[in-house]
Automatic annotation (TrEMBL):
Location relative to the cell: Cytoplasm
Regions annotated as coiled coil: none
Record's protein name: Ribosomal RNA small subunit methyltransferase A
Keyword rRNA processing attached: yes
Role noted for this protein: Specifically dimethylates two adjacent adenosines (A1518 and A1519) in the loop of a conserved hairpin near the 3'-end of 16S rRNA in the 30S particle. May play a critical role in biogenesis of 30S subunits.
The protein's Enzyme Commission number: 2.1.1.182
Keywords: Cytoplasm, Methyltransferase, RNA-binding, rRNA processing, S-adenosyl-L-methionine, Transferase
Catalysis: reaction(s): adenosine(1518)/adenosine(1519) in 16S rRNA + 4 S-adenosyl-L-methionine = N(6)-dimethyladenosine(1518)/N(6)-dimethyladenosine(1519) in 16S rRNA + 4 S-adenosyl-L-homocysteine + 4 H(+)
Domain Ribosomal RNA adenine methylase transferase N-terminal: residue ranges: 32-216
Designated gene of the protein: rsmA
Source domain of life: Bacteria
Family: Belongs to the class I-like SAM-binding methyltransferase superfamily. rRNA adenine N(6)-methyltransferase family. RsmA subfamily.
PROSITE patterns recorded: RRNA_A_DIMETH, SAM_RNA_A_N6_MT
Record-listed S-adenosyl-L-methionine binding positions: 25, 27, 52, 73, 99, 127
Length: 287
C-alpha cells in the first residue's frame, strides 16, 4: 500500500501496546483486512463508519478499496497514527474521538457522507472491541427509525457471539434474545471465521465476521416490548412460557391465548414471528 509505513512500525512509533480493557486485538495481516473490507464493499459513494480503528489496519483496507471512512476511536493514543493515515488519504478519513456507545452513528454517517453523492449510502464495518460488541449491535438494531441509513453491517465478533446472532430455533443452545432481535430486523449470516493467531495479541477464542442486511419492512412491533418479552422468556428458558412470562407482571395465560401460542412451549421453540406477536400483544394490553 504505497508509502504508508508498516502497521507494526506505527504501533511501535506511537507506543500502542494493546489494552485489554479496550478490547484491543489488532490485525496486521493485510490479506485479512483486505478480505474483511471486500466483504463490506463495493464502496462507490459509500460512507463507512468504522468503530475502533486502533492503529488503522482495517481502516487502510477500507480506504484502499475506495470507501469514505468515519472512524470512531476511544483510545486517544491512536489518534496521531490515524491522523497520519488521514493525511495520506486527503478528505477521505474523518476521525472522531470518543465512546461509540454514546454516539448517534447514523447522524455521524449522514454528516460525513461523500460530498458529491446525493443518494447517500452508509455502512458499518468493524473489528469490534469484544467487551462492548453486543451492546453496540443491540443499540444499532433497536434504533429508530428503521431502516436506518445503514444498508449493511459487516462486523467481527467472537465466534460464540456470532453464533448467537445468526441462530434460529433449530440451534437451540445459541437461540436467544440476540437472535430474535437480529432476526426481526435483519438477515444475518456468518461470512468466515478468523483464527486467534490473526490478532496481536491473540484472543482466547476464534472470531467470525458476520454480515447483517437490514430488512426494510420488518413485522411492525415496538423494540422495547420485544426486548421485554424476550428477556422474560429467555431469562427462564427452561420454564414453560406460561410461567416465564409471568415476570412481565401481566396475565401470561391471556397473552399466550391471544397470540395462539401454546402455554407449554419454551422460549427456544418460538420463532421470531411468535415473539413479535407476543410483543405486539404486550404493547396492546400494557397500554
Ligand atoms: N480496527 C483495529 C484492527 O482491526 O486492528 C482495532 C480493533 S480492536 C479489536 C478494537 C478497537 O476498538 C480498539 O482500537 C479500541 O481502542 C477501540 N474501542 C474500544 N472500545 C471502544 C468504544 N467504546 N468506542 C470506540 N472505540 C472503542
Amino acid at each position: 500500500m504505497d508509502a504508508l509505513p508498516p502497521l507494526r512500525e506505527i504501533v511501535a512509533r506511537y507506543g500502542l501496546d494493546a489494552k485489554k480493557s479496550l478490547g484491543q486485538n489488532f490485525l496486521f495481516d493485510l490479506n485479512l483486512t483486505a478480505r474483511i473490507a471486500r466483504a463490506a464493499g463495493p464502496f462507490d459513494n459509500v460512507t463507512v463508519v468504522e468503530i475502533g480503528p486502533g492503529p488503522g489496519g482495517l481502516t487502510r483496507a477500507l480506504l484502499a478499496q475506495g470507501a469514505y471512512v468515519v472512524a470512531i476511536e476511544r483510545d486517544a493514543r491512536c489518534l496521531p497514527a490515524l491522523e497520519e493515515l488521514a493525511a495520506h488519504y486527503p478528505g477521505r478519513l474523518t476521525i472522531v474521538e470518543g465512546d461509540a456507545l454514546e454516539m448517534d452513528v447514523a447522524a455521524l454517517a449522514r454528516t460525513h457522507a461523500p460530498v458529491a453523492d446525493n443518494a447517500k449510502v452508509a455502512r458499518i464495518c468493524a473489528n469490534l472491541p469484544y467487551n462492548v460488541a453486543t451492546a453496540l449491535l443491540t443499540k444499532w438494531i433497536e434504533a429508530e427509525p428503521w431502516p436506518s441509513v445503514f444498508d449493511r453491517y459487516v462486523l467481527m465478533f467472537q465466534k460464540e457471539v456470532a453464533q448467537r446472532i445468526v441462530a434460529t430455533p433449530k440451534e437451540r443452545a445459541d437461540y436467544g434474545r440476540l437472535a430474535v432481535l437480529c432476526g426481526w430486523r435483519t438477515k444475518a449470516r456468518t461470512l468466515f471465521d478468523v483464527s486467534p493467531a490473526a490478532f496481536t495479541p491473540p484472543p482466547k477464542v476464534t472470531s467470525s465476521v458476520v454480515e447483517l442486511v437490514p430488512n426494510p419492512a420488518p413485522l411492525a412491533c415496538d423494540a422495547r416490548a420485544l426486548s421485554r418479552v424476550t428477556q422474560a422468556a429467555f431469562g427462564q428458558r427452561r420454564k414453560m412460557l406460561r410461567q416465564s412470562l409471568k415476570s412481565l407482571g401481566i396475565d401470561a395465560a391471556a397473552l399466550l391465548a391471544a397470540t395462539g401460542i401454546e402455554e407449554t412451549k419454551r422460549a427456544e421453540e418460538i420463532d421470531v414471528a411468535g415473539f413479535v406477536a407476543l410483543a405486539r400483544e404486550l404493547s396492546r394490553v400494557a397500554r
